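User: structure tokens for this one?
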Amino acid sequence: MKGLDEARQLYEDFGRDMLRRRFPEFEGRIAVGLVGRGSECYGFDDALSTDHDFEPGFCLYLTDADDLLIGGELAQAYRELPIRRSARRSRLGEGNRGVKRIGFFYRRYLGSESAPRELRHWLSIPSWALAEATNGEVFRDELGAFSAIRETLLHGMPEDVRLKKLASQLLTMAQSGQYNYARCLRHGEEGAAMLALAEFVKAGTESIYLLNRAHAPYYKWALRGMERLPLLGEMREALSFLLTAENDAEGQALKQAVVEDICANVITALRAQGLSDSGADYLEEHAFAVQERIEDAELRRMHILSEQ
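Assistant:
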């Protein structure tokens, strides 16, 4: 059983009754779900995932006021549920289940206890943090305090921020894949060439998520997550090929062709979204076209590669 399914089942089997019996006045104020760190929160877990930092369970999200009133008692009630505990946890894997303050949960990802209000704040949050703060499922949230922030993070990124992030990633794609990969090979620097390809894959992946108005998970799951993207999700295989194919002369030539094919598909998507009308094959021109469409003057004047 997948971790998310098991979390929901444990809540239905044990958690719902516990809340109803022991916290009837607060039951409708407690959000329940499983969101955050771990492959199970993305639905990517398998048999191998259980070897560390994997623990069945769910999360109970409280407002600050409710945490002061019942947080300790609720945490004890959760610990008493018949849920098997895992002893194989790293320091990063501790505290991923049980009772959490809503504000504390979001602070670890956003640097604040609420959704960003300023463009600069939005721009400073890495995509993996936004992805981790909004993955998983919320099983119930009548109060809506937890879900309100979640919805803003999922769907409320200002368009100027998306364009700024996208322009930076597009220029990185141009420099690393269309220019520096072949140039490093001509210099005889195969290691540097592979690093250039890695930069291209990373920037290409981020760009495709941004074109989908989605948040890219951290590197381990970024390519895997592309299978869920409706736009250019099929580029996952081409991007993976760049990292895994042979690097002999034939492979190098093929990789350069694949880079150009990926860029051509991205350019088509940019034009379809009205983000560029350039006829160039080189992504640099499209990156600056995207930058010019930013309405906020301060963001538009920032260096194109800057995302801070």
